[in-house]
Design brief:
heterodimer, A: about 300 residues, two-stranded antiparallel sheet, B: 2 domains, 2 strands, about 0% strand, elongated
Chain lengths: ~300, ~325
């Protein structure tokens, strides 16, 4: 038997191995077909289109023209800056909020923990479409809740969504005020898995509550923090629903963001090549931020 | 120690409760606005008041205190044997109920919202069932079988998880057009079935299933298919519950792609319908919030019923938002 196998050539061995596990391929087949058809091919195709001037009958190769055109256009620059601003404020805020709230919830009893987990997670389950619709109403100049509450603090009413200097901030404030449900739950799970003995021995060494949190909890939560930051980063680079439902990118292009611009470029202006180039820029930015984030956190942990 | 301990506890609870109120206020406001009285003629001042647009805002559905008030007056009139007056107050009570739910009435009569609701529900169910079958099968072999190309396929799938979905919008749109799937639900269902997150989740979970069990089934002469259904699926149920719930939620809430491929109002899903509703009734907030409430209720119910799986899912290898 051993002799027999040895005499076979490599491709034959491979085929034999594949035939032996033919059932595995059959199990994998439905997903593989769907994956290739609706993800792999479209991704590759997107890169191709981004180097083309798209026409209904024929597409023309134009090299990097779409990318040049994208960066040269004012709306793209504005969208880029707005998206970055939005990200730079909302991502740290939501991660820190999640950390803070989880720290407060963690020592509570079972019932209170469950209650707050539910209360903070519920808005996350609700469609962003609904949240955006109600916030448009909350920001209403005359009848909105937001100005009503600001009035208690003596802040004069603003037409938040219709002024170019407040509109983007309105979207930012709203997304900070939506509780970071995912983050809270993941932090709580991570906190629960830290062995109690670490805290006990720190207590014996005379560390106070804050020191124990800062020296034990925070470092051990690092993987969770990294994961959440990435998640939140990807989400905020893709901010779209709030924009289309609350401001339409306006006034002017004060709240134009990358995904909203991609949507407009592709499906209003039918500039498929340009839109694909914009989408690839979005991908590259996400990637750069992701890698930078990973590198920063792991380099710091090595120190 | 005792004193500081209680103070800390008080501060903790205060911060958490205040933040929870802020978090839930928008949802509360959806329902309050949807159930707010419409225009109301105030007999004492002789003015017509729109409660939704009152300054300052009315923070609860005004129908509730009004209804109680009318009810008490009707009771008082009945006690005094003043039938005419009692009748009057009873009528007012009915009016208040009608007025409270008038937003929903206008919604159900004037729009296709039931249709949208049905579309959203059946698409979400079809995709969820499909994903559960397809991804459990794929995750199982990727975790438990050794076959040529396994690692290549797995890493290809993982790599595409990092790519933002917006990249595929244009090519998918062109494909959908080419195959004549514009304005069909296939255009939503097929790309959704291709989502890769579930494969990753199921594979990670399957790694924890002991291989000896599968080996034993094979020695007993069970076919691959039978092994899968009788051993793998029952063991994978917790992960499947999680995957099912998150898939359902994602599909139910999905928005960007549906607004691109659906133009026919009969085919809309709820989020798309809500957007059109808003485009057409920019300032009729009672109506808009009634629509929002109809869309929010199913997810709230699903969440309350399956909360434990939501929580578990997030900690099981990390899920989307």
């Amino acid at each position: 038997m051993a002799h027999h196998t040895k005499s076979k050539s490599k491709p034959q061995l491979l085929l034999r191995a594949m035939w032996k596990e033919r059932a595995a391929y059959l199990f994998l087949l439905p997903k593989l077909i769907l994956f290739v058809a609706f993800i792999l091919i479209p991704v590759v195709w997107a890169f191709v289109i981004s180097f083309q001037e798209y026409g209904v009958f024929e597409s023309e190769w134009v090299g990097f023209d779409n990318f040049k055109a994208a960066f040269a256009s004012e709306s793209f620059q504005v969208a880029l800056v707005n998206t970055l601003k939005y990200t730079v404020v909302t991502v740290p805020c939501s991660v820190l909020l999640a950390l803070g709230l989880a720290t407060l919830i963690n020592p509570l009893g079972k019932w209170s923990q469950g209650f707050f987990r539910g209360a903070f997670y519920l808005p996350t389950v609700t469609s962003m479409v609904i949240i955006a619709m109600v916030w448009r109403w909350v920001y209403n100049y005359r009848f909105g809740l937001f100005n009503y509450f600001l009035d208690f603090f003596g802040i004069p009413p603003q037409d938040w969504l219709n002024q170019s200097d407040t509109a983007l901030w309105a979207l930012i404030i709203m997304s900070v005020l939506i509780p970071p449900g995912v983050g809270i739950i993941m932090y709580l799970a991570a906190m629960g898995s830290i062995p109690e003995s670490l805290y006990e021995s720190a207590k014996i060494d005379g560390a106070n509550a804050f020191q124990r949190w800062w020296r034990i909890t925070i470092p051990l939560l690092k993987p969770t923090t990294l994961y959440l930051t990435m998640l939140s980063l990807i989400g905020s680079f893709q901010v779209f629903i709030q924009v289309i439902l609350m401001t339409g990118g306006g006034p002017g292009n004060a709240t134009e963001t990358l995904v909203h611009l991609i949507y407009k470029t592709a499906f209003r202006d039918m500039e498929f090549g340009l839109a694909s180039a914009q989408a690839i820029v979005l991908f590259v930015i996400t990637l750069i931020f992701g890698i930078a984030q990973y590198w920063l956190m792991y380099r710091r942990s090595e120190e | 120690m005792g004193f500081r301990h209680t103070t800390n506890k008080w501060i903790t609870y205060t911060v958490l409760v205040v933040w929870a109120v802020i978090s839930l206020l928008p949802l509360y406001w959806v329902f309050t606005t949807a159930l707010q009285l419409g225009e109301y003629h105030d007999e004492t001042t002789g003015q017509t008041i729109s409660y939704v647009e009152a300054e300052p805002p009315v923070l609860y559905p005004m129908g509730i205190p009004k209804y109680i008030d009318e009810w008490q007056q009707a009771r008082a009139a009945e006690a005094a044997n003043d039938t005419a007056k009692a009748e009057h107050h009873r009528e007012r009570m009915d009016q208040i109920v009608d007025d409270t739910f008038s937003g929903f009435e206008a919604l159900f009569k004037g729009t296709n919202i039931w249709r949208w609701f049905f579309n959203s529900a059946y698409i979400a169910v079809v995709v969820t069932v499909g994903i559960l079958i397809i991804d459990t099968m794929a995750g199982y072999v990727l975790a438990k079988k050794q076959f040529p190309g396994r690692n290549l396929i797995f890493w290809l799938i993982i790599a595409t998880m990092m790519i933002p979905g917006q990249i595929t919008l244009v090519p998918l749109f062109m494909m959908v057009q080419k195959f004549g799937l514009m304005d069909t639900h296939w255009a939503l269902i097929l790309p959704d079935l291709a989502m890769v997150f579930g494969v990753f989740l199921m594979r990670q979970y399957m790694l924890s299933i002991p291989s000896e069990l599968l080996e034993a089934a094979r020695i007993d002469g069970a076919s691959e298919w039978k092994t899968f259904w009788t051993i793998v699926v029952p063991l994978a149920k917790p992960a499947m519950a999680t995957l099912g719930i998150f898939t359902f939620m994602n599909v139910w809430n999905s928005f960007l792609w549906p607004i691109i491929v659906l133009n026919d109002a009969d085919l809309y899903t709820l989020p798309v319908g809500l957007k059109t509703l808003q485009d057409q009734n920019l300032a009729i907030f009672k109506l808009l919030m009634s629509g929002a409430a109809v869309a929010a209720i199913p997810m709230i119910v699903v969440f309350i019923a399956f909360q434990k799986y939501f929580i578990k899912g997030l900690t099981l290898g990390g899920v989307k938002e």
